[in-house]
Predict the 3D structure of the following.
Amino acid sequence: MSIRTVTSDLKAYFNREIDFSSLVFFRIAFGILMITGQIRFLANDWVYELYVQPKYFLKYYGFEWISVPDETGLYILYALSIVSALFISLGLFYRFSSIIFFAVFTYLELMDVSNYLNHYYFITVISFLMIFLPLNKAFSLDIKFGLVKEKGLIQRKYFMLLLICITGLYFMAGLSKLNWEWLFEANPMKIWLPQKVDTPLIGPLLDEPWMAYLLSWLGAAYDLSVPFLLFFRRTRKLALFSVFMFHFLTAVFFPIGMFPYIMMTFSLLFLENDTHKRLLGFIGYKSNGQKFVTQGFIKHVYKPLMGFVLFIFFVFPLRSHTYPGDLFWTEQGYRFSWRVMLMEKMGHCYFYVKDPNQPGQKEVLPSCYLTNNQERHMSRQPDLILQMANIIEEDYKNQGIQDPEVRVVSWVNLNGKGSQLFIDPSIDLTKIEDSWAHKDWIIPLDSVISPVDFKHPFLSRTD
Amino acid sequence: MKTLRIFPLIALLSTLVFVACEKDDEPEDPSDEVNFDRQSLLTDLSEQVKNSYINFDNSLEELNSQLSAFNDDVNTQNLENLRTAWSNALLEWQAVAPYQFGLASNLIMEESSNTFPTDVDQINGNISSGSYNLDAPTNLDATGFQAMDYLLHGIANTDADIVDLYANDALASNRLDYLNTIADQLNEKTDLLVADWESGSSSVTDFIANDGIDNGSSLGLFLNSWIQSYEAITRTNKLGTPAGALTFSMIPQPQTVEALYENDNSVAYLVQSVADNKSIYMGSNPEDVSFDTYLRELNAMHNGELLADVIVAQFEVAENSLSQLQDPLSEFVVNEQMTALEVFAELQDLVTLLKTDMMSSFAIEVTYVDTDGD
């Protein structure tokens, strides 16, 4: 079996026509999941808690221009995301609806970094792909209303884009678990599991040290292997079983919201084309057997889309390796890299504002500016600490101090090792611009400075 | 293909193990197992809160009886007795000050009982007008212990003159009424809180039953309230602000000390407060389940040492450094500002150990919002 035959087999596999049912299945499931997720968000009153209540918002690098609308505007955006998700499910004004959904969902996610979740980012990526995929060409209202012509078959490669996304999410999440802390210290499982001993049935086992190791190793093995096991018919049943088991357990143990349900549903995409067809048959789906003629547009975007998917899932996450220092500590290249549940990290910090014309430093607590949720994220992520310093700088400029200096004394505890100094307290953060460059004002993880050995800045004065 | 099958098989087997395993009857080696029982921690905490409120309530009773003696016969001896009772009650207050959640939070107990510095103009305005509502937000700094401090120590220079203001002054009866109204407010709220924390009351039952680690759990509420109180009141208000640690100018603010008009006991209230915070951490009895025993069971570490040992040691360092302070604190922060700031630093280090290390070990969730499980 030469490489050439493998490639040509693969090519043939990708180009083979499949029934549209797999894409329709995905379209309907995606819409329902998104409607559920957004309604759940509203029902929990998170719009108010996360976007109305805060006085300040922590911005994404490069997206500082995104502003948070007022309460009415926010509810309109959420309503838009729900209606467009519904239209996606129904296949009504599909292209337009998918653009609206992608734009609105992404905008909402970009409003505050504190609310970054990998699975939101995943949805953003998927919904971007959906704009280009012709998911409304079967079993849709668009056909019923004569807006598009019905098709029956489509080349598998378009559907494969979605499967590669799911594979990438799992595989990269698994890859990021292959580190010393996860495998050989069983952190953070060792910290989290004993808190769950009151779980029915399995609870009493959770404070066993071997349990933390078992679940860490199983978790890594699961993430690395499950997309491939789902892919092959022979292993699929057991893989599906483990998907439902694994995500059920994580849903019980951790407050991770919709993520387990999204992954359980998406794992069903790996079912055979025929199975999707049969499943959809229950709600009246009939394939019309007509070929899907690959028209210019979709044909031209296939390669760029594949490149995009491969880049987002397999290349962009690797950027963290170009930074020195411990990734979990500095979090340089941590976001948008499919790293989930990897660490227990907690911090708190005091900011000190100095008027250059006066001897003292005024202590400023972040809680004057941020909500608990925002402060929790800010206090352990260097770029957000920098943003906090800038917010304070602006505030004191408005209060009439011409050139305030802002420093921070911040303490972070990573994986229960103990709090240690996080950011160089001598650095005036107002002089620093955020960038992709290495943040050399983060104190390295291995130079452990405990609070009990620390000389506080207010103990020295400059006259 | 065979190797590929192994993983789902493991998943299946481990699931079966989960499901099949009932709680083991055989005792296991206790050393490597975390013997977690948040309910007994919460039970012991609720006892401690209850006892603190009872002690505080008793001290208020003594304050009341001295106040009625003063009402009956305004003289310097009764004034002196009343001051002593007031000071003892303020010492007992330090133990309940950290419990500002649940009913205490609804009653805005902390703010109405012990806001300092007190607003002398507001107090005198209220006394001359004779009509005021001490529960109004504008009167939070014109009531409670610190308003009493002014009324018992600060309204005139000599005891004879103070007594005169309660006996013969044009506003004498208004002034005495004001003192009584403050005491009534303290009593009413405290009675509610004592009942609220009584063993077996529905709120105590709820407190013990709500034994999770989520944002609204009893442990979360308790820890947030306690650590917030330690940081903002004990560390900042009682010492940091007077020492000028929080200002651009770094000029000491002697007029911001607790019990400014009594003026020879501010350090005592601070020392008491730190001691009470320590006993919240340690438990009031050695056999109690406390945060200390809890951290030890978790085997929580702080940079290579046992976290519980580090916290206990830092409490001792803080207590020792407090002995450098001298009353009147209002003069000490001016004359020996650097010493005051050094003590302040020791108090602050405790905040970090409690807030970052202890909270992290308990994995208390700060919000209800979804996480990546990060």
